[in-house]
Amino acid sequence: MQLLICGIHRSGTSAVAHMLSESCRRTLLEDPDWAMTGRLVDVTAPAEELARWDILKCPRMTEVLPAALDAYPQARAAVMVRDPRDVLCSILEKVNAGMPTRMLEFSRLGVSETGAAGFAQAYVTYARTILSARAAAGAERVHLIRYEQFWTDRPAGIAALAAWLGWTSDREVCESIQSRQLGPFHTKHPGDQSIKGAGRWRTELSGADQAALGPALDAYTSLCEAAR
């Protein structure tokens, strides 16, 4: 594994992973089964499997990012940073469609609250873990990508990430796939595979849920400052 792409669920990890993999012609392992449990990921267990892939896309690895970077000293991490209000909208889209999901279950992080309040606590924990990993490993190994900036020009965002890695991306490939739904099919309702983009919370998120996300918004601000 040369690169780990992570960040909280529904933050754009799939789009970045697929566009980077296809435009740079690198192999991609996406959301492996061993990461999709109710426990924290054991970062050393999949070492043999990860050695066969260039890129691992795994949001759950964010929860143990410092340990993952220690276990794989040759690897770098690209971490997606997205407005928690939009992240919650994306998760609720699946919940409201009646589709099963564990994306709002964070007991493995010690979070007992449910709904928006529990999500806010989890987002704060993710942010602290990301900032801790970056402080320890440095900007040369942990690269933060703001979803909102990536969304405005996705091929340019992929080119910048590839340059950070010392890779070369094919802009035409990026342009040819950027409008596709690149996330796992099971995370979207079969009747709506559209890409909602940035700022959806303004029309979709209730006032009560917005209020509950106060701590998460403070954490998001800290991540954005670190991403500059």
Layout of helices and strands:
Elements: E1 3-6, H1 13-24, E2 28-30, H2 47-50, E3 55-57, H3 65-71, E4 76-81, H4 84-96, H5 115-137, E5 142-146, H6 147-152, H7 154-165, H8 171-177, H9 201-204, H10 207-212, H11 214-227
Parallel strand pairs: 1-3, 1-4, 2-3, 4-5
Helix pairs in contact: 1-7, 1-8, 5-11, 7-8
The fraction of residues assigned to DSSP E strands is 5-15%
Residue stretches low in confidence (pLDDT < 50, at least 5 long) are none
Strand order of the largest sheet: 2-3-1-4-5
Give the overall shape.
globular
What does this entry look like structurally?
The protein is an alpha/beta fold. The chain is built from 11 helices and 5 strands, in the order βαβαβαβααβαααααα. A 5-stranded parallel β-sheet has the order 2-3-1-4-5, with helices on both faces. Helix 5 runs parallel beside helix 11. The two termini are 26 Å apart.
Summarize the structure.
It contains 11 helices and 5 strands; from the N terminus they run βαβαβαβααβαααααα. The chain has helices spanning 13-24, 47-50, 65-71, 84-96, 115-137, 147-152, 154-165, 171-177, 201-204, 207-212, 214-227; strands spanning 3-6, 28-30, 55-57, 76-81, 142-146. The mean pLDDT is 92.
Task: Jot down its keywords.
single chain; 228 residues; alpha/beta; five-stranded parallel sheet; 11 helices; globular
